[in-house]
Every structure is written in structure tokens, then in C-alpha cells.
Amino acid sequence: MTADETAVRREGAPPAPASSVHQGIAARWLRPQRIVTLVVIVVLIVLPFSLGAGNLDLAVNVLIMAIGALGLEVLIGRTGQVSLGHAFFLGIGAYTAGKLGTDHHLNALIWIPAAGVIAGVVGGLVGPTALRLRGLYLGIVTIGLLFIGSEWIFPDWTWLTGGPGGRAIAPPRFGSQDFTAGARLGGLTFSSDGLYYYLALVILGIGMVYVHNLHRSRVGRGMLAVRDRELAAAVVGVNVARTKETAFIVSSALAGICGSLYGAHLSFVVPTDWNLELSITFVVAIVVGGMGSLWGPLLGAFVVVGLPQLLQNASSSLPLVENSQGNGGVVSTGDAANFIFGVLLIVFLIVEPRGVVGLGSRIAALAGRLRRAPAGTAGHRGSR
């Protein structure tokens, strides 16, 4: 007996016909949101087979960026805590990957989770102090944490980071399969970037499922309560300190996993890689993509990673932007991208705080109203 039939029996009414129960199940699974989600998943799976080498490398960077943005979404979008030190935890993940994967030649199944665990532990140690503050003060403290890491900790711990000169990070290895030379599975051949793509896609998918379930749990509802009104959340019994700490640990862990893949994909990192600009890029990603949305980090990562490449490709036709040879313009493509990021950040915060996801919802709602308008108008006239 299904749950629907049991509920009807308890009310004393006869059970619903099996056909109606099946129709209800089908209706739930055929909702537009789930259909769109399924289509997006299929597109992401088959996408590498239609991309060239350059665009595939870009797609890998988008997915890796989306993993880190997903972690920041838990902290900022769901809990309302400002953090500008996200790049610090990426650095911890990257150096963990270098130490365990490169120096000790461990399997990627070990050092990828280890990067998340170590970054999460560090976040748990820093969190109680940082999260006593809120708003602008918390943002300043996390910036201080970032500068301490990039200026003192990372350059001085040469046994871990290689010092100011940086260190190499070996590509992931699963058993005898190394990502350097690609792989052939059945009748399909995967390049090195193709392997990185599917590894990042699997990790992003696992992370999205985990964050989705977290948001539906009691802890996730507590995060929303803390974000909306912290004092009221404490009054109704939410442990505010523990909720903030959980969000900080989850955010740091996902940042560490992101950093491990980011460093392995770059193959060589230096302490200055983990700077304020990288942290702000993640903030821009979740604001533009849509705070409070599960798909927002992926959409935002697509914007912040794809926009510089788009400007680079179109630089010859843009009068103020330098072309690929470094001449013919006033500003570089990087500066132009940063300017556009700032404009997008302001526009979305003022006009559409829910980002691209919210904009898409508005367009879909408007299209639905326009589609229903003629039928409603005809019925109204007929009743007259």
C-alpha cells in the first residue's frame, strides 16, 4: 500500500484508484523544473564530445569554479555570512593535493577527500573566532585571514608549499590510470581535459546532492532562519553559533576540494595565486548566478570564467580592449572583465538579487502569463 492510499484510509474514505495514484506520481516527476534539470544533466554529460580542446579546458575551469562557488553559497547565500577569504581554503586544498598526491604518490581517491577534510578542519578552527562578528567586520576578518595565508603562512611553509617559488602538483591518478595521457574506455577516447571534466562533474554532482539534502534538513532550515533574522532564530531554539560553524565548515571543505582540482589542473601553483581577486571572483559568481539557488553557482561560474574568454575572442572588434597581440586598445581583457564583473554585481544586487536564476524564473512566469492570457480573455468574453 502506498503512502497516498494509507493517508486516505486513515481519513475513512475509500482508497484512490491505482490509476490516479500513478498519475499523481507521474505528475510529480514531469514537473517543468525536473524536466529542465534532467535536460541540463544530459547536456553536461554529452557536452565534451562537441567541444574543441580550448573550449573543453574552459568547461573544466567552469566546473571546478562551480564546486568552490557551491561552498560559498552555503555560507553567504544560505546563512548570510560574508566571507572574502575563500581563496585561503582553496590554497589549503591545493597544497594538500601536492603533498599527498605528488610527494607521497597517493591515489586521487585519497587526496581529494583529504583536501576537503583538512580545509574543513581549518575552517572549523577559524570559524568560532571569525563568526563572533557579522557583516562588514566578518568580511574584514576573512580578508585578514587571506593575507596571513598568502603573505606569511604559504610562503614560509616550504616543506608544504615550495615557498615563494611555488610547487608542482601532479595530475590525479586512479590506480594505474593517470590523467596526463588521457584514457580509452570501450570505443571512446578521453583526453586529459576530458577526464578532468568528468571528474569535476561527478564531484560537483555529489556536492549539489549533499547541499540540497543539507538545505532540506533541520540544520539547513536553521541556516535560513539565521540569515533572515538571527535574533528570532535564537528565540525559537536555533543554535546560532553551531549553525554558523556548520556552514563555515561545509564551505571550507568544498573550497578545499575545489582547490585540489584547481591546483592539479594548473599543475603548478604559487602563494600569490590565492589572492583577494580570486575570492571576489567566487562572490561575483554566486551573486550573478543567484544566491539561495542550487544551480546559481554553476551559472555564475559559467559567467565569470566564460566572460574573459569571450572578451578575448571579441577583442579585435572592441575599440577600447587590447587584442590578443596586446595592442590596439586602452584596457586589457582582464581589466575589462573586472569592470564588467563590478557592473554585473551592482546591477543584480539592485535589480534582481536572485541573479540569473531569478531572471530566468521571471521570464518563465511572464511567458506563462502570456500563454494563458488569450484563453482567459476568450473565456471572459464568452461569459458576457
Average of pLDDT: 82
Q: What helical percentage do the residues reach?
A: over 70%
Order of helices and strands: HHHHHHHHEEEEEHHHHEHHHH
Oligomer classification? single chain
List segments where confidence is low: pLDDT < 50 over at least 5 consecutive residues: 1-5, 7-11, 378-384
Number of strands: 6
Total helices: the number is 16
Per the principal axes of the C-alpha atoms, what is the gross shape?
Answer: globular
How much of the sequence lies in strands comes to under 5%
Overall structural class, as computed from helix and strand content, comes to mainly alpha
Give the strand line-up of the largest sheet: 1-6
How would a textbook summarize the main sheet?
2 strands, antiparallel
Q: Mind explaining what this structure looks like?
A:
- By secondary structure, this protein is mainly alpha-helical.
- The chain folds into two domains: 225 residues, no CATH class; 94 residues, no CATH class.
- It is 72% helix and 4% strand.
- The protein contains 16 helices and six strands.
- Strands 1-6 form a two-stranded antiparallel sheet.
- A hairpin with a 2-residue loop joins strand 4 and strand 5.
- Helix 5 runs parallel beside helix 7 and helix 10 crosses helix 12.
- It is globular, with a radius of gyration of 24 Å.
- It starts with a helix and ends with a helix.
- The N terminus and C terminus are likely disordered.
Keywords:
384 residues; mainly alpha; 2 domains; two-stranded antiparallel ribbon; two-stranded antiparallel sheet; 6 strands; disordered N terminus
